[in-house]
Q: What sequence folds into this?
C-alpha cells in the first residue's frame, strides 16, 4: 500500500463513524455506551472482555502475529498506532487486535466502518460471557 504518515488536518477518528446509529443519526452522547470492561476485538469481530486492567503483552502472548491499537487513536489515512507491550489496558476502552501485516497500511474508511459496525453491534447486543482460563470473559460474535 503506501507509507504511513499523519496529518492533523485530515484526521477523522473512529468515534465519528461509530457513534452514529443507522436510523436516527443520534449524537455521540446519546448512542454510545462505553463498556465497563476492557474490550479487545479482532478484525473478524470476535471479542474478549477483561474485567481487570492487564498489560498489552498479556493479550499479545496469545496472538503473536498481531498488535493492539486503542480505538480512540485511529485516524483515516494513517497507520493504526500500536499500544506499547508494557502499557496497561484500561477498563472502558476498546482495543483492536490488528495483524502485523496491517501495521504499515493506512486505515481506510471501509475498514474503519467495518470495525465500527462490529464494535457497535457488540456494545448494543450484550450476551452472556464465558470465563476463560486467563480470566477473560469471552463472547463470540457471529
A:
Amino acid at each position: 500500500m503506501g507509507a504511513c504518515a499523519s496529518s492533523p488536518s485530515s484526521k477523522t477518528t473512529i468515534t465519528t463513524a461509530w457513534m452514529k446509529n443507522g436510523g436516527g443519526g443520534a449524537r455521540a452522547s446519546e448512542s454510545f455506551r462505553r463498556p465497563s470492561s476492557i474490550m479487545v476485538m479482532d478484525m473478524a469481530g470476535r471479542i474478549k472482555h477483561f474485567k481487570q486492567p492487564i498489560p498489552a503483552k498479556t493479550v499479545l502472548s496469545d496472538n503473536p502475529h498481531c498488535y493492539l491499537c486503542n480505538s480512540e487513536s485511529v485516524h483515516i489515512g494513517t497507520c493504526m498506532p500500536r499500544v506499547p507491550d508494557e502499557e496497561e489496558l484500561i477498563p472502558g476502552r476498546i482495543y483492536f487486535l490488528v495483524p502485523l501485516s496491517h501495521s504499515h497500511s493506512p486505515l481506510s474508511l471501509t475498514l474503519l466502518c467495518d470495525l465500527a459496525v462490529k464494535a457497535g453491534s457488540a456494545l448494543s447486543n450484550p450476551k452472556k460471557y464465558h470465563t476463560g482460563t486467563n480470566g477473560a470473559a469471552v463472547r463470540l460474535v457471529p
About this structure: The two ends are 29 Å apart (CA to CA).
